[in-house]
Amino acid sequence: MFSSVWSFIKRHKRKFIFTGAVVGGVYFLGKYAQKKIGDFQEKEATEYIAQARRQFHFESNQRTCNMTVLSMLPPLKEAIVHQLNSESLTALLKAKPANKLEIWEDLKIISFTRTIVAVYSTCMLVVLLRVQLNIIGGYLYLDNSVGKNTVTPLAPPDVQQQYLSSIQHLLGDGLIELMTVVKKAVQNSLAGVPLKQSLSLLELEQQLSWIRAEVEASSERPMSWYMLADDENALADQACGLTGNDLATIRLLNETRDMLDSPDFTTVLNASLSRGFSRLLDNLAEFFRPPLADSALNFDSLSAVSLPLAKIIPIVNGQINYICSETPSHFVQDLLMNDQVKEFAANVYETFSAPQALQK
Fold it and tell me: Who contacts 195 (Cβ-Cβ below 8 Å, separation ≥6)?
């Protein structure tokens, strides 16, 4: 019996060897596949957790951006009002001076200038802080991800403070330069318009469009200059503090300059300005509404309602209190919730929170 079995095995030896090899191979292949699937699942889970953590950090950073914008509006308003003080002119008019007409002309230019400057500077504040705080946010994410014991922090607190202090350019020299350009455009557009002349809302919109065109097309400097000085020495000066000329701060400022000079930033700024001036016109439209009996008229019919320029001036003059309000208003909310601004902020954060940023 055993001899016959042995003879059968010898006759079919090759089949047994092949079958055994296949079974063994399949077993080890299965084990290998299980290990690879396990590794893949573990890697996928790790990436998912990292992505969720990154998303949470980004969303938290956007809330910080919003709160920072609101906190910066009062000093921005104060800087504008200080340089373009219409209240002193209004007080003079109440005293019924002999040069009343001259004061009214000055008030006309000052009122339109400071409201238009308020729209420009608020839009700039929103997009500039979106860039700065998302650069910082991206680097902070990397700092917390790679471990402080192994890598020098990309954005330590003192560097953050020095870097963010560069916002003072927008509240200082940049703002004054912007006022000069806007005031010139306002004078060219409105100087010849008599105080008694009536303007409809559509005619007022046309005046604002002419002013915008001159400001944005004939400026000797790019719009980004009002937000961050482009001179290398000025950048170095901004980075100088108690710690001296900090290279990390200079790097952040230069990276910000690159972002402000990009076509994408120009697109986002223009979208914000369009939204800002559209909201301004919505606010002004409240004063051009027809009588209650005709309240069903649409926006286009508002061209039939006109107001003397002398009555429009105080309306325009008061808009700064709405535009630069630290209490969230529709004006600021529109800018903060602008989809293009949010998408651009996400791209900035994505760029500077990626591991490749460590190699810069």
Answer: 101, 104, 105, 108, 308, 309, 310, 313
3-state helix, strand, coil in the chain (%, to 5): 80, 5, 15
Beta strands in 177-288 (DSSP E): 198-200, 240-241, 244-245
Max distance between CA atoms of the chain, in angstroms, equals: 137
Structure tokens, 354: 């990626």
Predicted confidence at residue 238, as pLDDT, reads 52
Residue 160 in contact with residue 252, Cβ under 8 Å?
Answer: no
Question: Tell me, what's the pLDDT at 48?
Answer: 47
Tokens matching residue 85: 């003080």
Burial class (CB in 10 A: 0-12, 13-18, 19+), 110: buried
Token look-up 């006759």 returns: 11
Tell me the whole-structure pTM to 2 decimals. Answer: 0.81
The CB density around residue 62, as the number of other CB atoms within 10 Å, is 18
DSSP at 326: S
Distance CA 71, CA 68 (A): 5
What are the C-alpha distances in Å from 99 to residues 14, 196, 312, 336? Answer: 118, 17, 21, 44
Give me the phi and psi of 296, to 5 degrees please: -80, -5
Cβ neighbours of 249 (radius 10 Å): 26
Is 241's pLDDT higher than 70?
no
- pLDDT tens string 94-113: 888 889 999 999 999 999 99
Is residue 59 within 8 A of residue 112, CB to CB? The reply is no
Residues 288-345: pLDDT tens digits? 877 664 555 455 556 678 999 999 999 999 999 999 987 878 899 999 999 999 999 9
